[in-house]
């Protein structure tokens, strides 16, 4: 990711440190207003192109502060989990690269929102988890606070969920999923291509070896 390193040297001073703290804090605040004071904050924060064109330009950012619909205990767990993986990614990559990862995901959601009329950050947060699992596959977490599970197995379930949703979901879900994974493939797409090339070369070498061994055994 040489181009990211160049961007970091040039624009690193403009990056927002501890970005995930602000995002998680915003989600928690919106949750409190919605579920304790019954104020429908999502109606004023969601990414709705029609309303943005009417002047509500804050919606191009505020949609990332809409929390998932869940119980208080679950939302606290989810927000803490995203806070943890977000801070870990920022520590691993540096502030600007983490900012860019989230920004690319936001841009993807905006593009899908312009096509479908609505955008959601739900799948964007899942893409954070995929990035964390890719970098730290053997990290263990306690599932249901009891069972130790390596993060890579949960990532496989996440990918399966994406795949099933792409097949069975409506146009809004499909667009949101594809858009939310743009950041993941920008950062890790080259690794996947290199992996495929390596295995293709390995398979070719193995086939050639077997072919030569058959010739050798035939002429012995």
From TrEMBL:
It is a multi-pass membrane protein. Keywords: Membrane, Transmembrane, Transmembrane helix. The chain crosses the membrane at residues 20-39, 60-85, 100-119, 126-147, 159-188. One of its GO terms (cellular component) is membrane. Its main location: membrane. It is found in: Membrane. Gene3D superfamilies: Rhomboid-like. InterPro entries: Rhomboid-like_sf (IPR035952). This is Peptidase S54 rhomboid domain-containing protein. It comes from Garciella nitratireducens DSM 15102.
